[in-house]
Design brief:
The complex is a heterodimer of chains A (about 290) and B (about 270). Chain A has about 290 residues and is mostly helical. Helix content of chain A is about 75%, strand content about 0%. Chain A has a two-stranded antiparallel sheet with strand order 1-2. Chain A is globular. Chain B contains 13 helices and no strands. Chain B is an all-alpha fold. Chain B is globular.
Amino acid sequence: MIILFLLPAGILILLVFGVPLIRYSWLSMHAASVVTGLDNIPNGGANWIRLLNDMRFWKDAWQTVRFASFSVSLEVFLAILIALLLHQKWKGRGILRSISLLPWALPTTVMALGWRWIFNTPYGPIEKIINFMGLNPLNILSNPKLTWLSTVLGDVWKTTPFLALILLAGLQTIPDDLYEAFRLEGGKPFQAFLKISLPLLKPYLFLGVIFRLAQAFGVFDLIQVMTGGGPAGSTESLALYAYLNAMRFLDFGYSATIMLASFILLVCACALSWVLIYQSKNIYRVYNS
Amino acid sequence: MKHKIIWVLLLVIWSLSPLSWQLYTSFCTQEAITHPLTNPGPHWTLNNYRQVLTASPPLWDYLFNSLLLGLTTTLLTLVFAIPASYALSKLKPLLARTTKIILISAALFPYVLLFLALLEFARNFNLGNNLFALSIPYSALSMPLAILLITSAFKDLPKDLEEAARIEGLGIWQRLRWVLIPLIAPATASTSILIFLFSWNEYPIALTWISKPELLTLPVAIARIAGSSIYSVPYGAYAAATVLGSIPLLIMVLIFQKQIISGLTKGAVKG
């Protein structure tokens, strides 16, 4: 009887999360594009061979990894600071929490548009300040060396509150007595943070980082609206490349291959971050023995 | 922390300055935007808002579409998630753990990678350009998190309570309807808000499922303004659209701050 309660939700989840992965595995072994008249013709792994030799795919993979690792590391740093600040007891805390939550709640596309205007040359505020200081314009959105950093900033701005709240939840589980005891033994506040807060925050940090890493890896909205992948493809992410293959080049077989490959890369990235967060001590020990 | 006020100010500036710039721009005339110092004409205007609100279709339509979609999605998700969560809270530990791990992996999955299969789904079953149909993938995508949150609420209820209701002769539906669901209301509320926010902000699936201009959701409509032309973008109108698109969320965050935070943090603690 009780299993029946699980069934409708289970079927829906399986339909939306499970079936696509099976469908992609199948599609990735077929030619399915305008060239084949949108028919699915088995092509014996030709998509995968094409993927391995596709420089654009590897460039996008590198750009996606770069984007995800930079924005998640920056977010972790800022989120720890914000979580510590929000954890303090004082009157205006509720309002401060609302304010810091706002960037997370806004639709990504809305602020992606906002960032485009802020980084605009020559009318955006950043270029105006640079102009005021008498420096040459940076052309942020048309300089491949800078554009990706501006997308990182857009992502960090939006998603740091989420991570900060996860860490705040972690901070709230640590009893005050621990800090008190540490203080009485002559420990400095910063040491208390390193010796008490950080180790106890680890599970929260891990969960938040994995979640953020997965989301940053699939970055699409921000890039599509803010830069469209440009300039010169320098901000194109794997998800955007897969989207373009399906919707612009109408090559569904290859698009499915890219998405499956992205998924595999993501699993590897998550495993790596697990090693970094949980096994760092062991690795350190091995190297020092 | 010393100099707390400085840190607080920094946080406020960091969070609000990008939006403030939009707010400022939205009230500027085109001349004031492009030539702020040498512009002889008026600096302030409401034209940008007038333009966005009288365009065809006006911005209100998109707000309404997003609202409708958000409500349908939330309702649909809860109808599926509450019974499933109840069942999950009664499962044997091993089975419950396995299900939980599957749900967590699904909740972590970058769902944008699913868009192609979902689009095929829409084509095969003729679900494109239909806001109610769009709420099906939306609620499936928010289901894992919803189930995790509501399950932990069911688990927190005292066991004797349901037992007492059972002895009183209430059937499973009656117990759920009159005893258990009212008691998990706070968790349901914070879950609903998270689902609503997801649905309100979702972009890639709405982008591929909806093509009729009058059915677009707010994120897609705003992105379209950006895509309309790269070189001569109407910055003022642009900013007005972002401001109007932000107001509903500003209100939601101010009212539901506690629920949002408890939803997010419960997801972390119990998940």
